[in-house]
């Protein structure tokens, strides 16, 4: 399994996609997200989709580490990644790279008092 595409729905309409890629079974994967257009931004749709995708990767795919990256200039994406629990790990001229681990995510949610299980 190399890629898992996940549709982002608003009602019955597909408004974006999350792709889980570079999958190494029971080790790690990388997540990417795109929304159809700017009309769907700033509504929490991407944030909720990323939270659900993280749960899916940790629980259903049994992958303990998830990576993501964003171009340096995409401050909105950087904010959402950090909001859902990703930690900045490094950057280069063009990209910022992030990581989230299942154990850290469980601890973070426990400290925040949420009931979600990963």
Secondary-structure topology with pairs:
Layout: E1 3-10, E2 13-24, E3 28-35, H1 45-60, E4 65-71, H2 75-83, E5 87-91, E6 95-101, H3 102-112
Parallel strand pairs: 3-4
Antiparallel strand pairs: 1-2, 2-3, 4-6, 5-6
- Count helical runs: 3
Outline: globular
CATH architecture type:
3-Layer(aba) Sandwich
Spatial sequence of strands, sheet with the most strands = 1-2-3-4-6-5
- The CATH superfamily name is Gcn5-related N-acetyltransferase (GNAT)
- Following the backbone from N to C, one meets helices and strands in this order, namely EEEHEHEEH
Level of helix content?
Answer: 25-40%
> What ranges have pLDDT less than 50 throughout 5 or more consecutive residues?
none
Instruction: Provide the CATH topology.
Output: Aminopeptidase
For the record, the CATH class is: Alpha Beta
Structural class: alpha+beta
Major sheet: 6 strands, mixed
Number of domains: 1
> What is the strand tally?
6
Please state roughly what percent of the residues sit in beta strands, choosing from under 5%, 5-15%, 15-25%, 25-35%, 35-45% or over 45%: 35-45%
Distance between the termini: 21 Å
